[in-house]
Design goal:
The structure holds 3 protein chains of 3 kinds. By secondary structure, chain A is mainly alpha-helical. In chain A, 88% of the residues lie in helices and 0% in strands. Chain A starts with a helix and ends with a helix. Classes of the chains: A mainly alpha, B mainly alpha, C mainly alpha.
């Protein structure tokens, strides 16, 4: 357990020293969501309709940007091998990295999203639903993305490749997350969406750390 | 007692012998013509049923005959993904090179099957429902399956070290296999929620016995084709990856 | 079922869609084995060239 916390602390410390990397990913989120009204037009009814999808897709893309940081720097300077060689179980250390990534890339999205939602004229209850779905969904994004990050370590063109590998896996989260906000805006019940998102989160927590640990080991050897 | 032990040991040895590329290569070579013959037989039978036995559909006219390649291609694209993931998984567990090579050989065929399913789906949808593409649950899932195939092929192509490529691809394929039902279910949910195009390409005309027979025959044709082309491609992969071993240099076609 | 070859090719007005589908299918099913054969020929040619080069080296150094 202390290994997990130590790993989280280490990654957070590294991020604090290079705040710009994280802030650029969040800035990307804001910029991308602003592009859609500029491209489509300022019709509020239309914006309200596309808001869940746009915000969620922007969240997916900015999570992908942040994922490149998860293993790449440690892989490049050899720290990842040391981590793999340590007596602590690899699964715990990898999980620590995922949690740190979520705290840095996912959690800020949950806080930023309502502000963007207001820009798109979403009503208050939809804003709450949006925050809730992002709260449940962004950990799944960090988890699933870590698999792609580990598989493409050190590969030429790895970051684009990782995006292509991971985006199809993100689709269920996108559907349920954006779907919940849309359903709320037309007055439908959202409990089904939330329970499915919860189920995805539990499934991901149960399996992904072991898969990512195996993928990291393959990349190192 | 010892006799049965010997028999078992012989069988075990023989099976694992086949898992070495050098013994598999000639065996595959002999099997390939057989599967091409089977492909031709099932193909001709299937086409005969599709065009000359299956009756005209009351609603869709002659255009529905596209179903005889659309549905088999869809079935095959999903089936090949399962088989590919199974081979990749076996390669990961038993650390056998040949299983991973089989997975690598099957991926492009599966991708082409997914593409054919999408193409024929578009050409079926246009006359029937007026649009080249509808975000129907089946078609959308098929599109995502194509992305999964392309991701697998791209990953294996970008990693230089062949053993690392095998194992990384295996993990991706296994993760994909688990995700395919989840993705299909979520796309179905999305489709019903948004009530978009109320058309569904899955609402095929009521199945007459002959239509089902035609689809089964074409599916068998595609299956035999898959095995034939899979064996051909795995032979090419074996040659490429085992290029500097003795047995390759001694092959008739390579020996100078 | 078909009264004439012309009727068969017309496919009740759906000729474009039916034949484009079957045609592309046939094209793909032919393209794959042909491309694998080309790949096979290329690798065998390369291996033969390597063996020739080695023989050359051996004869040259003798």
């Amino acid at each position: 357990m202390s290994a997990l916390l130590a790993m989280i602390r280490r990654d957070l410390l590294l991020v604090m020293r290079r705040k710009s990397e994280v802030l650029t990913a969040l800035f990307f989120f804001v910029v991308v969501t602003s592009l859609f009204p500029l491209g489509i037009g300022a019709d509020t009814a239309l914006l309200r309709k596309i808001a869940p999808g746009v915000i969620w897709v922007a969240a997916l893309l900015s999570t992908l940007l942040g994922l490149q940081r998860m293993f790449a720097a440690d892989y490049a300077d050899g720290a990842l091998e040391q981590i793999a060689l340590s007596p602590q179980p690899m699964v715990l250390l990898v999980s620590g990295k995922m949690i740190a990534h979520w705290m840095v890339c996912g959690l800020p999205l949950v806080i930023l999203a309502p502000i963007i939602g207001i820009q798109f004229d979403l009503d208050t209850s939809s804003l709450y639903i949006l925050m809730g779905t992002l709260l449940l969904g962004t950990p799944v994004l960090s988890l699933l993305g870590s698999i792609g990050a580990a598989l493409t370590l050190g590969v030429r063109g790895g970051s684009i490749l990782m995006s292509l590998l991971v985006l199809p896996l993100y689709i269920p989260v996108l559907i349920f997350g954006a779907g919940a906000v849309y359903a709320n805006s037309v007055g439908l019940d959202t409990s089904g969406h939330f329970s499915l998102l919860g189920a995805l989160l539990i499934l991901a927590l149960a399996f992904v750390p072991w898969v990512t640990a195996a993928a990291v080991k393959i990349a190192i050897e | 007692m010892t006799d049965t032990n010997n028999f078992d040991k012989n069988r075990l040895v023989n099976w694992f012998k086949l898992s070495s590329p050098s013994t598999f290569y000639p065996v595959a070579g002999k099997l390939i013509p057989l599967f091409w013959v089977l492909t031709a037989i099932f193909g001709l039978a299937g086409l005969w049923v599709s065009f000359f036995v299956a009756p005209v559909d009351a609603v869709q006219g002659q255009g529905y005959r596209i179903i005889f390649i659309h549905v088999p291609a869809s079935w095959m694209s999903m089936f090949i993904y399962l088989v590919m993931a199974a081979w990749a998984g076996l390669g990961l567990i038993f650390n056998t090179r040949l299983s991973a090579m089989m997975a690598q050989a099957l991926a492009p065929i599966g991708a082409w099957m997914a593409f054919l399913s999408l193409w024929t789906g578009a050409f079926w949808g246009k006359p029937m429902w007026g649009a080249w593409w509808v975000w129907d649950a089946r078609l959308t899932s098929e599109l995502i399956l194509l992305f999964l195939y392309l991701g697998f092929i791209a990953l294996q192509a970008s990693i230089d070290n062949p053993r690392r490529a095998d194992k990384a691809g295996a993990i991706l394929a296994l993760v994909g296999v688990v995700n395919v039902p989840i993705i299909y279910f979520s796309v179905k949910w999305w489709n019903t929620l948004h009530q978009g195009a109320s058309v569904s390409l899955t609402k095929a005309p009521a199945m007459a016995q002959t239509m089902l027979l035609g689809m089964l025959l074409m599916a068998l044709c595609f299956w035999m084709y898959t095995i034939a082309v899979g064996l051909m491609r795995v032979r090419a992969i074996i040659l490429e990856r085992e290029a500097h071993t003795d047995w390759v240099r001694q092959l008739d076609e390579v020996k100078v | 079922m078909w009264n004439s070859p012309a009727e068969f090719f017309a496919m009740g007005g759906y000729a474009l869609y039916v034949w484009c589908s079957f045609g592309v299918c046939l094209a793909v099913l032919l393209f794959e084995p042909l491309s694998i054969r080309a790949r096979n020929k290329a690798i065998i040619r390369r291996l033969k060239q390597e063996q020739l080069a080695e023989q050359f080296d051996k004869e040259g150094s003798q």
